[in-house]
Amino acid sequence: MYEIKQKKFEVSGFKIAYTDMGAEYGRVLFCVHGLLSNARDYDFMALELAEKGYRIISMDLPGRGKSDRLDDPSLYAPPSYIHFCHALINHVTAGKPFDYFGVSLGGMLGMALSSLSDIKMERLILVDVGAEISGDALNMVAQIAKVPPVYNSIDAAKQALRRRCASWGINEPYIWEHLEKYNIVENKQGMFAFHYDPAIGSALPAINETIQMWDLWRQIKQPTLLIRGGLSMLLTVETAMKMRDNYKGKSFDLITFNPCGHVPNMMQKDHIEALSSWLGVANKK
After folding, report:
1. Tens digit of pLDDT for each residue in 75-125?
2. Which residues of 226-259 are buried (b: 16+ CB within 10 A; e: fewer)?
3. Cα–Cα nearest to 101, from 224, 219, 218, 11
4. Structural domains in the chain, sorted by start
5. C-alpha span between 65 and 88 (Å, rounded)
6. How many other CB atoms are there within 10 angstroms of residue 105's CB atom?
7. How many Cα atoms are found within 13 Å in the side-chain-facing hemisphere of 260?
8. Contact by Cβ (8 Å): 113, 82
9. What count of Cα atoms within 13 Å lies in the side-chain half-sphere of residue 184?
């Protein structure tokens, strides 16, 4: 069995943390998490796919997990995230083909990265994010990000984490335990905090208009898997169907998980098995 290796890579003077699991020359699946998560969300997926021949690289976006925090909170935005992702992709793939897996914010970044000519993204997996996001849905996410991430006790922090991730469709205690282990840290004052920079939430503006990314979506040529939560407010079934109809690439597939909202956790066995099947490694050992 492969072990998870914790590594860091310096980009523009900042250290970006990432996990690395699988054979050194295995095909890379590059994973990018959602707004308030970190690389360790994909440990279970990595354990499974590494045994099937993949090398799974999961990064901590700046300000999350073990990555450095940014000096200027206004840089917690897609343009700088794309810069860090781009640099790390070039570092770990060395110009070789790879597949991209992005959850929510990570999926938005994947859509932007898909057209860059100096990386070889061959397949694109988007989890609960689409080419159109309503202002109401974005403000819902922003409000979650603005919840104070520091608590007097570990139990209070665990309860807050479970409230935040209640829509993920988690049905196994070991998944909650894993999330608690890697999303809650004790600070120097003996308080318990979520493992991200609070400035991420405070830097988010109020958004009252629908974000439209249809021009970007129509440029995607990679075979694409869209995964959505059946109860998702962020990626509605109407948007998913419109994405299918406006897709101009090689192949498009849609998987819906119930009962999930935003986002399907991609940690439990049925989620991982569905992804393995799409990647063509479901029965590979």
Report:
1. 999 999 999 999 999 999 999 999 999 999 999 999 999 999 999 999 999
2. bbbbeebbbbbeebbebbeeebeeeebeebbbee
3. 224
4. 5-131+213-279 (3.40.50.1820)
5. 16
6. 19
7. 24
8. yes
9. 24
- Only one residue has tokens 């192949």, namely 251
Q: Answer for the pair 56, 186: CB distance below 8 angstroms, yes or no.
A: no
Residues 198, 178: Cα–Cα separation, whole Å = 22
Residue 100: name the closest of 215, 216, 225 by CA. 225
Q: Who's near 23: CB < 8 A, 6+ residues apart?
A: 2, 50, 53, 55
β-pairing, 121-127 vs 211-212, is unpaired
How far apart are the two ends of the chain, measured CA to CA in Å?
11
Pair 125, 100: CB distance under 8 Å: yes
Backbone angles phi, psi at 226, to 5 degrees: -105, 120
- Sign, Cα dihedral of 177, 181, 186, 192: negative
Q: Does residue 167 carry a pLDDT above 70?
A: yes
Instruction: Summarize pLDDT for 210-266 with one digit per residue, the tens.
Output: 999 999 999 999 999 999 999 999 999 999 999 999 999 999 999 999 999 999 999
54-59/27-32 β-pairing: parallel
125 and 275 Cβ atoms separated by less than 8 Å: yes
Strands (E), the chain: 5-11, 14-21, 27-32, 54-59, 98-103, 121-127, 132-133, 150-151, 184-186, 192-194, 211-212, 224-229, 252-257
The whole-angstrom separation of Cα 146 and Cα 149 is 8
